[in-house]
Amino acid sequence: MRSIRINPWSALAGAGAVAYPFLVWFGRTAVPPAGFVLIGVACIAPRMVATRRLVRSSVEITVFLLAAVLLVGLLAVSPAIAARFYPVAISLALATIFAASLRFPPTVIERIARLTEPDLPPEGVVYTRKVTAVWVGFLVVNAAISLWTVLWGSLEQWALWNGLLSYLAMGTLFTAEYLVRRVVRR
Asked: Cβ-count burial of 55 within 10 angstroms (0-12 exposed, 13-18 middle, 19+ buried)?
C-alpha cells in the first residue's frame, strides 16, 4: 500500500466548502447575495481542477459546471435562496458523479482506492461499489436536509446543518466505513 499525496486543489475545495456557511453567517449583513453566489462559484472551480486527477470522462466537469450555472440562475429567481444553495448544489453534484460512476465503472471510490492500492482485488472492487452506493444515498439525504434548511429553516438552522452537523455526519460515515473495511479485509 503506498501513501497518497493530498491534492492542493482538493484541499482548497474542501476548505471552501467548510468555510462557506461561516462566510454567509458572518457576512450576511455586509455582503449581498450575489457576492455569496460568486464565492460559491469560486469554490466550485478548484473542485473541477481537483477532479481532473480522477476523471475518466467529462461528466464530472459538466456536473460541476451545471452546479455553478444553477447557483447563478437561482440568483435571478431568489437571491436569498441562491446565497444559501451552494451546499445543496455540491451535494447533488457529488451524488450525481458517484451515481454515474456506478453506471459507468470504475466507481469513484474504486478510483480513490486504486491511488493507494493499484492492484485492488475483485472483492475490493465489489466492496468499493457498495461504498459508492452508500455515499450516493448519504449525499442525496444531505442535499435534502440542506434544501429543507434553505427553503423552510432559519439562517441559524441552515448554518448549523451546513457548517457543522453535515460534517459530523460525514465524519461518522467515514469512520464507520473505515471500521467496516478493517473487518472486511480480515
From this structure: middle
Q: 110-157 pLDDT, tens per residue?
A: 988 898 889 999 999 999 999 999 999 999 999 999 999 999 999 999
Q: Number of C-alpha atoms within 13 angstroms, CB side, residue 183?
A: 6
Which pLDDT belongs to residue 182?
86
Cis bond before residue 106 (omega within 30° of 0) = yes
Structural domain contains residue 140:
yes
At residue 54, does pLDDT exceed 60? no
Q: Are 63 and 97 in contact (CB under 8 A)?
A: yes
Domain assignment of residue 129, yes or no: yes
Q: Is residue 3 part of a domain?
A: no
DSSP string, 94-155: HHHHHHHHHHSSSPHHHHHHHHH-TT--HHHHHHHHHHHHHHHHHHHHHHHHHHHHHHTS-H
